[in-house]
Amino acid sequence: MSIKRERSSPVPTDGRASEVYRTAASIILQKGYDATSVSDIANALGITKAGLYHYITGKTELLFEIMKYGFEELDREVLEPAQGIADPEERLRFVIAAHAHLVLRGDGAVTILVDETRALTPVQKRSITRMKRRYIDTLRATLDEIQSAGKLRDVDTTVAAFSIAGAVNWLSRWYKPEGKLSGEEIAANVIEMILHGLVKRRR
Length: 203
What we know:
Layout: H1 17-31, H2 38-45, H3 49-52, H4 59-82, H5 88-104, H6 112-115, H7 122-148, H8 157-169, H9 171-174, H10 183-198
Helix pairs in contact: 1-2, 1-4, 4-5, 4-7, 5-7, 5-8, 5-10, 7-8
């Protein structure tokens, strides 16, 4: 699905785009959008505010660029590889696992997509909604295939798709790298809980 890019802040071309977006996303994830200042982001990057404005035109534009960057990650690391998996149950397992691993990396670029859209302009919100729909549509189509094969429990696939996305994104709110379980172990638990609740077990 092609997505029309909204005219917005210039995308950095000197190789620092990832650092700018990930650093800003991590701070916003910790403090919230409203409590995060441009100075906070510049200080974390070790540059001046003027230096940061070389990359952005304002905080709202930066938030929008972070969200687009997050969806590009989601496309590249989750959705595109998933297209090559023919078996829908295995595809669902891959999507959940790859998304969970992306979230558990802890940089915030993906997880910020859910909570802060209220800060965007109406045009930006519509653009982000179109991007979100690609992910939800992939989940729903996969669940529909499992349902058509008679392997899905009696659930609505739209409800299930949004629930999966919410459960995985919420990992960023409670996961602690220093905790008892590793990211791999948590991802494995999430996969099993979701699949056990949705897919009929073979007898």
